[in-house]
């Protein structure tokens, strides 16, 4: 599962790193250390220019985290579709069309998961862990996106939204949570984003090499509240013993 993550790169930086066009139009960007569902997040898509036969270009776009299928009658009446199970995504009506025609990358620094552990008062508490590459590099998750148009207001601008694919956790990540976001290594990006293909089932399986580079560290419980948002959320928790471990 992926229900909260950190994303600190601005669109211009991502555009340079990924050889992409920045189409966000953002006048000001603020690093987000506590990305929550339904907020606007950065994504990478590949699309052709209008009226051009040139190859598709990568583009940085901002989308709502929580996919809204084109057939939805309205937004916000049900739980946001922030994750899609890779094992069944091809057969789910909410995701099948996006899998064929609208695949994307969701860049992030790392993601959070929680474990229920005993508290000093004898009760239990939710303890957050942050999963990210040990070398501090950025990662990209496999994602899908969709375009929704309000049937009640045909003149309203379309809503772009996205979801993150998940898979059964493997290796050290299975010690934290049974599900994990699907990390796409760079060698899979071009095929995954290709708008002229109809999907690649062989790409939506975990990359053991990518997972092996992920370090797990316990972090401050401040991340439990979406009101908290700063670099202190990524600092290893002083009471955690080993502050960064490959479990």
Please, could you describe this protein's structure?
This protein is mainly beta and 247 residues long. It has one domain (5-111, 134-207): SOS response associated peptidase-like (hypothetical protein yedk fold, Alpha-Beta Complex), CATH 3.90.1680.10. 12% of the residues lie in helices and 34% in strands. It contains four helices and 13 strands. The protein has helices spanning 11-17, 93-101, 186-193, 208-212, and strands spanning 5-7, 20-22, 32-35, 40-47, 57-65, 83-85, 103-108, 110-118, 124-133, 139-148, 159-168, 179-181, 214-218. Strands 2, 4, 5, 6, 7, 10, 11 and 12 form an eight-stranded mixed beta sheet that branches. It is globular and about 65 Å long. 36% of the residues are buried. The model is unreliable at 240-247 (pLDDT under 50).
Order of helices and strands: EHEEEEEHEEEEEEHHE
Q: How does CATH name the architecture?
A: Alpha-Beta Complex
CATH superfamily: SOS response associated peptidase-like
Strand content: 25-35%
Which shape, going by the Cα principal axes? globular
Q: Structural class of the secondary structure composition?
A: mainly beta
**Number of β-strand runs:** 13
CATH topology: hypothetical protein yedk fold
For the sheet with most strands, the description reads: 8 strands, mixed
Number of helices: 4
Task: Give the averaged pLDDT, no decimals.
Answer: 91
Question: Residue ranges: pLDDT <50 for 5 or more in a row?
Answer: 240-247
Radius of gyration: 18 Å
CATH class: Alpha Beta
Number of domains: 1
Question: What is the rounded distance between the termini?
Answer: 18 Å
GO molecular function: lyase activity; peptidase activity; single-stranded DNA binding
EC number: 3.4.-.-
Enzyme class: hydrolase
Keywords: Covalent protein-DNA linkage, DNA damage, DNA-binding, Hydrolase, Lyase, Protease
């Amino acid at each position: 599962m992926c229900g909260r993550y950190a994303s600190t790169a601005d669109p211009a930086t991502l555009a340079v790193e990924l050889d992409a066009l920045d189409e966000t139009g953002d006048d000001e960007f603020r690093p987000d250390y506590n990305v929550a569902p339904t907020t606007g997040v950065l994504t990478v898509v590949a699309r052709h220019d209008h009226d051009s036969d040139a190859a598709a270009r990568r583009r940085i776009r901002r989308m709502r985290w929580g996919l809204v299928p084109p057939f939805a009658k309205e937004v916000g009446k049900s739980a946001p579709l922030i994750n899609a199970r890779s094992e069944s995504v091809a057969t789910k009506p909410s995701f099948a069309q996006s899998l064929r025609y609208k695949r994307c990358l969701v860049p992030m620094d790392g993601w959070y998961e929680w474990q229920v552990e005993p508290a000093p008062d004898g009760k239990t508490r939710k303890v957050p862990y942050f999963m990210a590459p040990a070398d501090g590099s950025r990662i990209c998750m496999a994602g899908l996106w969709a375009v929704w148009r309000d049937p009640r207001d045909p003149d309203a601008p379309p809503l772009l939204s996205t979801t993150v694919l998940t898979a059964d956790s493997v290796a050290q990540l299975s010690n934290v949570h049974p599900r994990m976001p699907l990390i796409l290594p760079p060698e899979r990006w071009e095929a995954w984003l290709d708008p002229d293909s109809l999907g690649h089932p062989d790409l939506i399986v975990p990359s053991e090499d990518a997972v092996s580079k992920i370090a797990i560290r316990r972090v401050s419980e401040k991340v439990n509240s979406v009101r908290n948002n700063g670099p202190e959320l990524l600092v290893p928790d002083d009471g955690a013993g080993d502050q960064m471990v490959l479990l």
